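dude i think i finally got it to work??
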Amino acid sequence: NLLSRHSINGVAAFSDEILRRQLNVSGAVIIAARSGNQVVGVTVLYLHTNVAYYHLGAYVDEGYNLRASYAIFLKALEYFQKIGVPWLNIGAGAGAHNNGRDGLSRLKAGWSTSPKTAFLCGHIFNFESYNKLARMHGNIHSSYFPAYREDEFN
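look at this
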């Protein structure tokens, strides 16, 4: 439902195998919302040291209608507080040029006590090693960064 609802494709459309790998990462926490016997939403977070990081969430149509994401975020906050984790980083809205008015941004802003700026490194520190990796994967002229990881989710 998530893929079609938001027209997600390419590298962002995780294959089943990639999703399985992500769920098996040490520290992965999965929180699900149910309506009766049906799972209507799921969120994956990663716990690392004293911070839990929101990774992804997906909902069926009924989950959106029931606003299951709010129940999941509440349970996540309660769970991490219970086990002594002081920080939950829920990230931002989707996209590099987000204006903050989409549903995901509004949801996250409603749970935030202090928005922070995040900086992602997109710099090549060792050109020789980088180019060697890109050549090994046949992606030397790719616009994807890093070029050597372009096809890893397909």
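The beta strands are 28-35, 38-48, 51-59, 87-89.
im so relieved honestly
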